[in-house]
Amino acid sequence: MKELFIILFSAILVDNFVLSKFLGICSFLGVSKNLKTAMGMSGAVILVMLASTALTWPIQIFLLNPMHLAFLQTLVFILVIAALVQMIEMVMKKTMPPLYNALGIYLPLITTNCAVLGVAILNITKSYSFLDAMINALGGGLGYMLSLFLFSGVRSKVDKADVPAALKGLPITLIAASLVAVSFFGFKGLVENLFS
Amino acid sequence: MLIQMALQIPQSVQNILIPGTVVLAIAALLGILIVIVSHFFQLPVNEKKDAILSALPGANCGGCGFAGCDGYAQFLADGATNTSLCSVGGAACSIELASILGVEAIFTEPKAARLLCQGTTACTQRRYEYLGTLTCNAAHGLLGGPGACTYGCLGYGDCMTVCAFGAISKKDGIIQVDPNECTACGQCVIMCPKDLLQLLPKSADVAVLCKNGWPGAQTKKNCSVGCIGCQKCAKVCPVGAISMTGPLAVVDQNLCIHCGACVPVCPTQSIVLLEKNI
What we know:
The complex is a heterodimer. Chain A has one domain (about 1-195). Chain A has helices spanning about 1-15, 25-30, 35-65, 75-95, 95-105, 105-110, 115-125, 130-160, 170-185, 190-195. By secondary structure, chain A is mainly alpha-helical. In chain B, strands 1-4 form a two-stranded antiparallel sheet. Chain B has a two-stranded antiparallel sheet with strand order 2-3. The interface between A and B is medium-sized, with 21 and 19 residues.
């Protein structure tokens, strides 16, 4: 149980996918303009991270590893995740229209999101069990949500500030993102000590 | 026999064939799965809605009161017959929508947003130096903004940022609306903290371009083009289209006969002939 909590909180805070591993930066910059779209995107990311982990972990362990085809990992995972997102989109459109309206437009964005692929691959390289992998995926998604939540707040302040002309737009956004990322380094070593 | 054939294939070729086959098999499996899922979860296609959506201009401005063109198309497809709500498409769009729905087309007069303020930097002063966030809504929160006339245009362009059609520009400390570009979607009207933008018919010829609520003397002190409520225009109007709301003259565009008699009598030039082309 303690290990699961360590995995969950280190995925959210210490090894935050966006701010520590710098994965999924393009969607992070793209949808953090306002809080509502940020939360919609985060919801979709959590959903897809969980679903893709539930699918890619068994594929790696029961198919690729026994056949000594582990080197196909990246290719197969991309294939599986892309197809999975397509199917989730179709099922959601039919059965859960309100949820589809909230998350739907972000799902295609996630198809090739590196944070999602990152979760799937890290689960394997860290040789997690299936439960560990799912918790890691949940933590990764929640971490993405936290960083988007924080950054959309920062960004709405930056948009209103009087920024020098040379830094307007993307440059100041990237500088702000790097400062938020630096602040996350404060969590290093926190989780291990928290549960010891 | 297949196994015998497979064994005859050299090891180096097998090294490529096996992974290739596995990937292809997974891809084929996923392809089949997607086809199956899409078959079972197919949505009934609403042809009427698609036709309506393609007839709409696709500006997604929200001027119709719905969340984008899709919302309006859904509204019409669900049986509504009000085809005139799209101000961007105008009369042509209304006719096309009516022909799709098989109903009588409804027309509304084409409108354009007008700024009811002429307080350029040449006409009015500032009360204080404003150094805060450069938006109208923020400046308005600080004692009604830095302008000497607290009813006047602040000119930071909140309306400009919401205009999806680029019809609004800044000039001489106030904003100006290009009536040819304006589609009367009304987003700027909602945005303006001073409530200075109004949708007027494009055929309108005269309007009082002032919205202050002060007595004449105070207006005159703070702005050289403000309406001082002298009532000269109301008296000269042959059809009684100009009435006074408090100290301010207002033109009723439905009654106006476009004679222009009110314009020369105005002592402050606050009632003006509207420019049709800027």
